[in-house]
């Protein structure tokens, strides 16, 4: 009986590892697609030409001293709805550098009130990641640091190497 339990346990672990590997491969593939779709936005002027811009009231460098920064969010306000499109993030996030602004991340943004009004019981999800609620702004968000390494993680909000100071 112990041998049978051990074999079943081994099969379950092997299947779980295979599933994790498949999810990671899918996520990496999706991130590569987003990189390809947003490569043209390294220059903020190119993003502005396609509808991304600084929004009054949010036109500052997002910084969290001791944790990291994000940078400046150029937002396509026409895309702020309850539809999440992998290849059309709602924001391009630019980190300040000594050479100007550097595209560091993309951000997916969904207005929380509209999402919740549709009867959703969970936050939006993309690339097997749940968005989280930014209560202050009233939006669900998901960052993807695809252009600048983030030692805290690809999908973390704050990047320890970004500073607005």
Structural commentary:
This protein has 165 residues and is an alpha+beta fold. It has one domain. 30% of the residues lie in helices and 26% in strands. It is built from 3 helices and 8 strands; from the N terminus they run ααββββαββββ. A 6-stranded antiparallel β-sheet has the order 1-2-3-4-8-7. It has a two-stranded antiparallel sheet with strand order 5-6. The longest helix is centred in the first third of the chain and has 37 residues. The radius of gyration is 19 Å and the shape is globular.
Summarize this entry quickly:
The chain has 165 residues and is α+β, with helices and mostly antiparallel strands.
């Amino acid at each position: 009986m112990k041998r049978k339990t051990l074999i079943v346990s081994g099969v379950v672990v092997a299947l779980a590892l295979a599933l994790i590997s498949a999810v990671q491969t899918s996520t990496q593939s999706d991130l590569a697609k987003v990189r390809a779709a947003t490569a043209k936005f390294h220059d903020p002027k190119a993003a502005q030409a396609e509808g991304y811009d600084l929004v009054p009231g949010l036109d500052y460098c997002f910084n969290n001293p001791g944790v990291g920064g994000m940078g400046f969010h150029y937002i396509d306000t026409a895309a702020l709805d309850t539809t999440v499109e992998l290849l059309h993030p709602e924001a391009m996030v630019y980190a300040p550098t000594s050479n100007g602004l550097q595209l560091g991340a993309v951000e997916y943004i969904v207005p929380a009130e509209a999402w919740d009004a549709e009867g959703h019981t969970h936050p939006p999800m993309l690339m097997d990641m749940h968005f989280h609620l930014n209560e202050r702004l009233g939006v669900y968000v998901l960052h993807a640091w695809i252009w600048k390494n983030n030692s805290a993680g690809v999908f973390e909000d704050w990047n320890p190497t970004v500073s607005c100071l």
